[in-house]
Amino acid sequence: MTDRAQQIAERVERFVRDTVVPYESDPRCGSHGPSDELVMEMREKARAADVLTPHILDDGSHLTQVETALVLRKSGLSPLGPLAVNTMAPDEGNMYLLGKVGSPEQKAHYLKPLLEGRARSAFFMTEPASEGGAGSDPSMMRTTCRKDGNHWVINGRKAFITGADGAKVGIVMAKSDEGACMFLVDLPDPAIRIERVLDTIDSSMPGGHSIIAIENLRVPADQMLGHAGEGFKYAQIRLSPARLSHCMRWLGSCTRAHEIALDYANRRQAFGKSLIDHEGVGFMLAENLIDLKQCELMIDWCAGVLDGGSLGTTESSMAKVAVSEALMRIADRCVQVMGGTGVSRDTIVEQTFREVRAFRIYDGPTEVHKWSLAKKIKRDWKASHGH
């Protein structure tokens, strides 16, 4: 690990523990995520502490993925931490994509306010399952775009669009005759209508998750991100590291949940001794320690693959499965160790459990990644046996 990453991570951890943690009981944290007022208040403090958008340097370059893993893990020590220091999804992934694919003009207009933490963004890809739209299988996309002079006209419906309510920047995926396309849009736009914000198990992301109707949205041709027909390629550029970033952040949250459960187990007495001295409890905490270390090693390995220049789709799938499932075990054990207190909102343990349960689904459910890996195993076997 580099000295610069260690120094940034230490500043981020200190800021999250000292400044952000007290906000966890703020009434502005609602069922559809923290309010924008709260987010901007925390970001002003992060800006003053020089920890805002810490994974992107002043010259616009990014920390390596291995370095980012350490910094994002520290930001995740509170569910509010990534929001406060501007490392949260979907903005973190959208910034990465814009930095890789956006034109200089697009970066100046759309990326700059995101980097500065003055705007939020939304990624419009997933569609309603009830209408046969795209979910884990993006080839099922039903949202269309057609050229009309110097504009593109987009129509369709989207679902589970995180942060759409209150976002200023949108990345919209649609299909044309050439294939999948991505467009940058300024929000709000009257042609992009929020039908409703869903009530979901998680509550860490501002704006919640919305059902969206897109009706005759006209987008200037120069707001296409990259080239027509290459939308799926750009989606992979975004999603492979984004899956890993989720692993980094939620590992931080589960590390903190483990700290809370460990403290509880040492302070709480039952049947004449501390809870931790009962094997049933002590063993759960020991298993947590093992899973936490395995998650860290898996993340660092996958980050190294991405730093080596590979797209890392296979590796990020393996990390998403291994880490999300291990974090679920950790969060569940923390709740169990703490009993009734674990399911109350007196600590973040209850929220961490809910957030990690949702993480097992978004950015590809465990089963989809396993299916994809199994297909690769079969392809590799065929290739090695001359089939």
TrEMBL record:
Ranges annotated as spanning the membrane: none
Cofactor dependence: FAD
Keyword Oxidoreductase recorded: yes
SUPFAM superfamilies: Acyl-CoA dehydrogenase C-terminal domain-like (SSF47203), Acyl-CoA dehydrogenase NM domain-like (SSF56645)
All copies of domain Acyl-CoA oxidase/dehydrogenase middle, residue ranges: 129-199
Gene3D superfamilies: Acyl-CoA dehydrogenase/oxidase, N-terminal domain, Butyryl-CoA Dehydrogenase, subunit A, domain 2, Butyryl-CoA Dehydrogenase, subunit A, domain 3
Superkingdom of the organism of origin: Bacteria
Protein name: Acyl-CoA dehydrogenase family protein
